[in-house]
Structure formats: structure tokens, C-alpha cells
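Review form for a predicted model. The reviewer records the input and the model, then writes brief findings.
Reviewer: anonymous (R2)
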Amino acid sequence: MANYYNDNEKIKFEVGQNALMQRIVALKERDFADKGQYDYAPEDYEDAMDSYSRVLDIVGEVTADVVAPNAEAVDAEGPHCEGGRVRYAEKTVENLDVMTKAGMNGMTMPRRYGGLNLPVTVYTAANEIVSTGDASFENIWSLQDCIETLYCFGNEEQRRKYIPRVCAGETMSMDLTEPDAGSDLQSVMLKATYDEENQCWRLNGSKRFITNGDSDIHLVLARSEAGTRDGRGLSMFIYDKRDGGVDVRRIENKLGIHGSPTCELVYKNAKCELCGDRKLGLIKYVMSLMNGARLGIAAQSVGLSQAAYNEAVAYAQDRKQFGKAIIEFPAVREMIGNIQARLDAGRALLYETARYVDIYKALEDISRERKLEAEERAELKRFSRLADAFTPLAKGMNSEYANQNGYDCIQVHGGSGFMLEYACQRIYRDARITSIYEGTTQLQTVAAIRYVTNGFYAQVMEEMMAGTSAAAQYAAQVERLKAMTEKFNAATTAVREKEDQELLDFAARHLYEMAADIIMSHLMLQHAAKAPELFEESMNRYLDMAEAEVAKHSVLVNRLIG
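Model under review:
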């Protein structure tokens, strides 16, 4: 039988073949402090890695046996709005039931709350795998990640109240956007007032475009400070559907991800709890929530790219024209090779980012229990910065790649790709949202550009070059990468020296993509040096593509400068 994890050696490589995993496991497992308390807690590093592999094996099996076969029916039926509530598609209910019975919820939460205590890197792999089967189901299932924000910023009473419920299979949502507050979240006006008589907070107003909006537990951004109009008046709240007070006005009729209900919500004096401190809802908590969500969309995008590659290869091997399979035609083979190269490079960037997130989040968690040592504080600072710099690259580039790969998958299918009975059209439709929600690609550029102008990406490239240069068998490729880096540094310096904000705004997307192309090229070279049988072909193809892109952006930046 197929297994979406065991059949994919490249995911296994990303999870297991990196030196940082030793540090990640040590931090996440607190030097294996749980081994005497929980029978499923690992005893050492090898046991931990084996445990992670077993979990991913289950996710891969469930995805292959249930989620993927159900995807067409889920896409066709979609959710229903009945009496102010959401009713999932029949096969979505089946998917959730199977995942819950398999114990695949609360994956990153500590064992003391009923979680699996998995690193973000392993959870990212699970997200990718499920997305390959059905991205719309992954949208619902992966929102369990919202519990990270409650875990980080809620109090212990809230942790004990809500986290075990999510670990047992209850669903979550993050209620942020409103009809007049999309990307501009500081304009949120959902009103939060304190009910002195009942000693609780109440929410009144509406939210729009809320993924899985009729979930069991909501994290809600609302205006707690009367008379304010900016982000300093916003706080984060926990709403429990058991308390009532929130109705689904409608489910949006979308282009793709049909299985995932995108809701408009109406709050009518809904009881809720303050999460963390007042006034920090947007400034601190949503930023944390969004960074996790953006990594999740990067994983979803990689899963969609993998699905596009799978469908393109299967069709091209089966379809005969002029007496031979169309995969033998150079034009088709080139398209498929490009899909694979973008997939492999984007995946490498995704897992590199996840590992950075793992280390800084684990150290942050430890800092809540004890004071960090000086070396640990330095490590936390370093990996927090790396995670912050890499997350917009991973989200932006992988979402754009998912769109291109879905497009190319349809092209490989020719006229058949335009027919609804082929999965490629669903993949194409599902991919379209990835470059829009949780921050458009344009907003990812805004988030990343300071790391261009302050020289951080250049510093990362320099450090990567020191490691990449050790791959003696790829000396020619290393020299090409050096030339690409010189173009990036020259373009960055030229823009910076102009001290013109409008020029920087126009040049930002070009510099952003140059940085991402070069960093992914480095990662592909490192991968090929370790496992040429898996990555050498993609490395060479991606380097060709990235080299052309960097040259193009260099020319365009020079023209902007004049």
C-alpha cells in the first residue's frame, strides 16, 4: 500500500539528515526528562527519531488510505451552513475521525497536556504530507497549531482547560480579519468589553474570511481599549463555542480549498477570556500566531507542489502520443523537471526554517521555567532572528512555486487538465490561495526587506558559502553561486546608497527573490553533496533557473536606479 511518508525519501532526508536535529531533540525533550513518566516518551536521541518516524508513518498511511481518496468528494460537496452552524462535508468528518483515533492532534504540545511533544520540524512534515493528500483538509486539521499561542501566552489554568481538548481532537480557529480589516489588522474593531456583573469579557461585532470559523475553540483579536483606533488598543481573547454567542452568517463560495469552511461570523455578547495581557493582542500575540501560520502555509504549499509533481509524472508516463509516452518528449520532461526542482528547493527552505523555529521556540519555553545561561540567550537571539528572516522567504516563495507547479501540472495534462475529473485542476485551484492568505507575497516582501537592507541575508549567504565550498565535486556550481551573490550584493548596495524609500519599495520584490533564489541554491548544493542520488539533478536544474532569475532581477534593479 502507498504511504505518503515512507514512499518519499526526500521528506525523510529533511527530517533526519541534519546536524541541528541533535540540538532540537535535546531541547524539546529536556534531555529526556519525560522518559520515566510517559510510556511513549523517548529514552535517547535514536529513540526520539524513531518515534518521530513512526508518527509520520501513521500520518502518511492515513493520508494515502483515507484523506487522498476522500479529496474529490470533499471538493465536490464542501461544507454547509445550517442554522448558524457549519456542517462539514461527509468525508471531512471521516478524515477528522480517523486522525483523532490515530492520535494525531496536539502534536507539538507537551505530554503533560496529552500532546505528542513533537518538534515543529516533524509537525511541518506532517502538514506537508496531509496537504499532498488534500490541502483543504489540512487547513482544518493544522489549525491545531493555534494552541501554540495559547500555550505560550495563556495562563496555566487556560492551558489545563483548553490544551487537552485540542489534543483529544477539538478544532481551532484564529479570528482576525474583518470586512474593513484584512491585511491591516490594526483597523480591527470587534468590540471587547468587560462584564463586571459576570466577571468576564464579552465580544460584539463581526469577523470575515475566518478559516474553520465554527471551530470548538477560537483565538480572537478584538478592541479592548475604548476610543483607540490602532494596534495598541487590541487584545487577544479565547472564545469557547460551548458558551454560545457566535453564529456563522455565511460560508464563502470559494475558487478552491472547498473542504475548508471560510466563514463570516457574528458575535452577540459572546463570553470570552482574555489571553495574556491587554493591549498586546496585535503587537505581540498575533505576530507569533501569524509566523506559525505562515510556516504552515509554506508546508501546505510544498504539499501542493508534491501533489502537482505526482499527478504530472503519473499522467505523462501513462499518456501515449505518436507511439510513445509523453514523458519522453523533451518539452514535457523539462516541465516536470522544473516542477521537481522548485519542489525540492522550496522544501529545503521550508525545513531549514522549521529547524530555526524549533530551536528558538524550545529555548523560549525553557526560559519560562528557568533563567537561560548566557550561551543559551545568545543561541535564542540567533535562531529567533534566523526564523524571522527565513519565514517570509519560505511562505512567499513556496506559495508562488505551488501556483506555478499547479499551472505546469495542468499543462502537462494538456486538454485533459481542463477537465474536472482530473485532480490537477483541484490542485491548481487550491494552490491559488496560498500566495494570498496569512499575508500576501507582497507582505512577505515587506517583512523580509529589512534583512536585505541591514545586510543579514548577505551575512547568511557568506556563512552558507563557507559550508558549500566544501563540496569539491561541485566547484563549478559554487563559482556560479559566487557570481549570483555578487549581483545581489551590488544591487542591494546600489539601492541602499540612493537613500530613496520609493526606490526601495519598487526594488524590494526583486531583492527579495534574489535573496531567496541564492539561499535555496545553497541549500540544494548542500543537499546534493550529502545525497547526490536524491538531489543532484534538481540542484543543477534549480541552479540554472535561479541563475537566470538573479540575472533578470539584477537588470531590472539597475534600470530602476537609472
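Findings: Residues 392 and 444 are 5 Å apart (CA to CA).
Further findings: The longest strand covers residues 262-275.
Recommendation: see findings above.
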